[in-house]
Task: structure prediction
Amino acid sequence: MCGLAGILYKGSGTGRSSSTGTALLDMLDGCQHRGPDSTGFALYGEPVEGQLRARFFVGTGDQADTAIAKIRTVLANYSADIVEDEVVGNNYRVVFQFSGDVQKLSYDVEHVAKVISIGKSLEILKDVGTAHQVDDIYHVQSFSGTHGLGHVRLATESDVRPEAAHPFWATGFADIAIVHNGQITNYWKMRRRLEQRDFVFNTSNDSELIAVYLADKLQQDISLESALETSIDDLDGTFSFLVSTRTEIGYAKDRLAMKPMVMFENDDMVAIASEEVSLNKLFPGQALSTMEPAPGTFQTWHR
Result:
């Protein structure tokens, strides 16, 4: 049992989009009981031409210093000029100028430090603990952006570690992230097929497969909507998941529909969560017209 949250503001980045971090935090607070072990956020801001933003798990103290030195060496080898960087919690955050092959860079830098995310717009923040404990370290409430995903996790398939928390980035594919509730039972079969095509997996979590699967489809110029449609047949198991790209958010739900999902949409925004209480957190005291997606359905929204 895990809790999902996703929100997208339909405008141009003004108005209520300034509350994206707070909105996701409130939504996860509403479903925290579904996953007390770890919490994560995929946050999307406005891109800067020619720049990438990246986050790494580096630990603390001497361990962090060593990892950061290695990351900087890899970036220098790729002629990536650092614009700004900082250490927050056990994360190293770096913004750098880069115009090369993101997938190759991602695979190489993974050899020296655990990559959390790389993107033009995307930053993933995740750690053990509750939503508010993670916010205390990484200041999610201060985030101003266009859309994002959130997840609270109850560990069932892997250890309680920061790198096992959601969201999962599709390693090598900028700006694609997923959050997932459920289990993919043909995980190893599909993973081996993708590994035979030289895709890299950095965890043994079945949720990472969804991110790489969708990223592969998008790389083939298949639309996100079409990729979600095929995922319902290609992925075995019980699942509800949310996916986000630089400009879109979407969901897919298996045909058994054992994993809950509720959504709300108006002219300004779309919000999706595991439970209605999360949506009510966005509009305290108001009666909302919500709906539960039908089994075996999918949908996308584009900014």
Summary: Residues 39 and 131 are 6 Å apart (CA to CA). The first strand starts at residue 3 and ends at 9. The chain has eight helices and 15 strands. The two ends are 30 Å apart (CA to CA).
